[in-house]
Amino acid sequence: MASLRAKLFNLYMKRSVKSKPLHLIDPAILRAGADDLAPKKTPRGVTCEKIVMNGISGERHSAANAEAGRAILYFHGGGYVFGSARYARGLTFDLAVKSRSDIFSVNYRLAPEHQFPAAVEDAVAAYQWLLDQGRDPASIIFSGDSAGGGLALALLLSCKERDLPMPAGAVLFSPFTDLAATGQSLVFNEQSDVMFKKVYIAEGAKRYLGEADPKSPLASPLFADHNGLPPVLTFVSRDEALYNDSTRLHEKLLIAGVDATLVEEKGLAHIWPLFCPRFPEAGRTISHAADFIVERTI
Description:
Helix 3 (89-99) packs across helix 9 (280-296) and helix 4 (118-132) crosses helix 5 (147-162). Strand 3 (71-75), helix 3 and strand 4 (102-106) form a beta-alpha-beta unit. The longest helix has 17 residues, at 280-296. The two termini are 34 Å apart. The protein has helices spanning 4-18, 27-35, 89-99, 118-132, 147-162, 185-188, 198-209, 243-255, 280-296, and strands at residues 46-53, 56-63, 71-75, 102-106, 140-145, 169-173, 232-237, 260-265. By secondary structure, the protein is of the alpha/beta class. Strands 1-2-4-3-5-6-7-8 form an eight-stranded mixed beta sheet, sandwiched between helices. The chain has a single domain (4-296), classed as Alpha/Beta hydrolase fold, catalytic domain (Rossmann fold), CATH 3.40.50. It is built from nine helices and eight strands. The relative contact order is 0.16.
């Protein structure tokens, strides 16, 4: 059962986010509002610096306890329209400490100014930059929340296409994997989801897709060939509209022989770890993710 603090947070989100037509709001307004969610201070034991990765801006979050070489390439959510490295700091600061890692959080280009496949191209450029820095792929994890989770998967697929070395694994938080919006949970979880209605997701995806096929594997990794991918850990809430984006992905990963783990929670908001430390479930999920990262990058 969700904690009282999580329930209060859900109520707040339902009133402040779900009540607004997100797919119709000006991207500049969405971006400013998302960045306001970020922690105001960098926590003790973490440094935050602006960086540029092959022309792509971002942030490096370094934990004082970081073990040499371990790195997380992180992609924020926001439907490919809003969000930033700053917006994701609540999650990435805590993950840096708990996983004893350096986190490279990417400000990939956003739609509608930059449509598919701009975000994928930026993800590839950022990963290539890490490799050019001498980073060992066996010590790198791809991670992301919502659209960023889908982008982390698209980057794995791009590694296959471009013959780039695979990282040690991927950690996905409520990934957005189906921009064609075919999941049944978009309908049966529309009431229980505290952030989204189906129309927000289906119409919002068009800002990024433009004229592209919504089932293109690099836009919607659910429809890709998943053979050869490294271990994948996915977290999702059973109550969110994008629930089936994770469950269907997990089934396909298993069929493809991928070492895949799906962790389902109940009564929590979409990408709840992003809101650490507002309620205890967020921190616990990040601890779980950190354990996976440490184990896979030894």
